[in-house]
Write a structure and sequence with these properties.
Layout (H helix, E strand, L loop, with lengths): L1 E6 L4 E4 L2 E2 L4 H11 L3 E5 H5 L11 E5 L10 E4 L2 H8 L7 E5 L1 H7 L5 E7 L7 E2 L9 E6 L3 E3 L2 E10 L3
Parallel strand pairs: 1-7, 1-8, 4-5, 4-7, 5-6
Antiparallel strand pairs: 2-3, 2-9, 8-12, 10-12, 11-12
């Protein structure tokens, strides 16, 4: 399984229920990676999308502990166990964990690839992604040239879990 995330210098991912910054090339990369695939996200992340609707041209699986939670056009999983069972129906390489913080933390042990947009800035934040640079089991296997959007420098970095 894959994770896809944009982080700042301190591995922050959001503040007050929103992204830290919007970078068009990052959104383009996200679309290219996830279109036609399976995206896994939490209820709060879904609520940040336009009209709170699932992403088009993808299978959306929402993780919510609320047994009455329903979303048109999405599959709902009420536990990690239920989510993992649902994910057995799909090719592992086609599954992308897209947030938020709690879903990333719970699903990190099941993922082998992380697509991280590293933004060279420190933002005010209240949600974070685990720092893969401090985890021996993750290694960088690819990275892009540094790019800029106005005065924001960023790069795309691919991490893979080391095989034992």
């Amino acid at each position: 399984m894959n994770l896809i995330v944009a982080v700042d210098n301190h591995w922050a991912i959001g503040n007050k229920g929103d992204l830290l910054v919007r970078i068009p090339n990052d959104h383009k990369f996200f679309r290219e990676e996830t279109t036609g695939k399976v995206v896994v996200l939490g209820r709060k992340t879904l609520e940040t999308f336009p009209q709170g609707m699932p992403l088009k041209n993808r299978t959306n699986i929402i993780l919510s502990s609320d047994p009455d939670y329903k979303v048109k056009g999405a599959v709902i999983a009420h536990s990690i166990e239920g989510l993992l069972k649902e994910l057995e129906r799909y090719e592992s390489g086609d599954v992308y964990i897209i947030g938020g913080e709690s879903v990333y933390r719970q699903m990190l042990p099941y993922c082998d690839v992380a697509h991280v947009t590293k933004i060279d800035h420190k933002y005010e934040a209240d949600s974070y992604f685990p720092n893969l640079d401090q985890m021996d089991e993750w290694k960088i296997t690819a990275d892009s040239e540094e790019q800029t959007y106005f005065d924001i420098a960023y790069q795309f970095v691919k991490y893979e879990r080391r095989t034992k």
